[in-house]
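Handout, page 2. Input:
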Amino acid sequence: STVYPDVKSQDADDVTLQPMLLAIQFSGRLPRHLIERNIPIEISVSIAEEFGCFTMPVVQTMSLDRWRSPPGSPVNDVRDFELSDEFISPADDIPIPFLPLPSEFDYTKRTDWEMLSKRIENWLIELNTKLPQWTWGRNTFWLTFIAAFPSFPRGTWPMWNPRIPLEGTFIEQWLETSS
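Output:
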């Protein structure tokens, strides 16, 4: 299913998506002899790829038993469910060395885009491909690569690292419209 979170204006230029609570109920009963300890439940949450360079969903879970603890109990406070600094995973601490862009970056110069694309490529090939930052970096790489070589796939352009696939909404649409 697709859900649409509320949006809150931060200032004239930015908005934030508001947190959502999601309840998952399980129908049926499991035979006790099948249960050893915990049963893994896989939940997948994603945001449309074109928004992934700006924000990404973070999932936090809490059992319903903990949620229903007695009034006044410290775990009954909804603020316990908000994302805090302690919840941020180590993956969120990955430095992005090419941001912010240097003040001398000139978006009208192809060479600046080419250098930025190369910096992103070098950063990207060092990342674990399972991290959300890798998908963001792959899409960012293709945006900057096309800015540097707008006639791609025609014309002259350098070969990129083969560990970066020709995938993602932007590059796939670019290739479709340029053929």
